[in-house]
Amino acid sequence: MTPGRRLLVVAAAAAALGLVAGLWHGRSPLQDSEAGQRALQAAANASAPAPPAGVHPARPGDPLPPIRLPDLDGNAVDLASIAPGRPLLVNVWASWCGPCVDEMPELQRFARSQHADGVQVVGLALDTPEGVRGFLARVPVDYPILLETPGPADASVWLGNTRGLLPYTVLVDAQGRVRKQKLGPFAEGEVADWAVH
């Protein structure tokens, strides 16, 4: 793909994300229920383009895909090794995504409420290091942040985000299996209930 075409695809994806973000702010009770989330995820997956050859998006019950990404200091980190034996809540976001920004304080509150053996929150930023650092200077979080370049085979796709929409969250149990996937932001107080049930 030529650089000009790649830029056009990224711009179209950003526009689509903006439209979806607007829809998320007008939430319905269906979107907030677990059955509603499964229905939304299934609808998103059904209309998603086929992933590139060799990419197998995770579904509930699947093992966490092997994902190795840099942190903000450039150190390569295996996602599964961040908190061995603990559940992981992996939140895919970007500094330019309004709903992602809106839910960050909620994720930070949840992360701080967890004990040493509780759920470990991990941010997976589809963004540049500069964009993430600038954002975190304004809205600090103290859970780990990994970086990824957006694309048709990025880590979020491996985690089941076949539409490439943000925010996207995956709950992985302590045995390393994907348990839940959520497309869209968490409302205030929602993440604790979602991650426990």
How does this structure look, described?
- There is one protein chain.
- By secondary structure, this protein is of the alpha/beta class.
- The chain has one domain: Glutaredoxin (3-Layer(aba) Sandwich), CATH 3.40.30.
- It is 39% helix and 17% strand.
- The protein has seven helices and seven strands.
- The chain has helices at 3-25, 29-32, 34-46, 98-113, 129-138, 155-158, 190-196; strands at residues 68-70, 76-78, 88-93, 120-126, 145-148, 168-172, 178-183.
- The chain has a five-stranded mixed sheet.
- It is globular.
What's the quick description here?
This protein has 197 residues and is an alpha/beta fold.
Biggest beta sheet summary:
5 strands, mixed
Q: Strand arrangement, largest sheet?
A: 5-4-3-6-7
Annotated CATH homologous superfamily = Glutaredoxin
Number of strands: 7
Spans of at least 5 consecutive residues whose pLDDT stays below 50 are 2-31
- Classify the helix fraction into a percent range: 25-40%
**CATH class division:** Alpha Beta
Radius of gyration: 16 Å
Give the end-to-end Cα distance, rounded to a whole number of Å. Answer: 43 Å
Q: In the CATH scheme, what's the topology name?
A: Glutaredoxin
State the main characteristics.
single chain; alpha/beta; Glutaredoxin; two-stranded antiparallel sheet; 7 strands
What is the topological layout?
Elements: H1 3-25, H2 29-32, H3 34-46, E1 68-70, E2 76-78, E3 88-93, H4 98-113, E4 120-126, H5 129-138, E5 145-148, H6 155-158, E6 168-172, E7 178-183, H7 190-196
Parallel strand pairs: 3-4, 4-5
Antiparallel strand pairs: 1-2, 3-6, 6-7
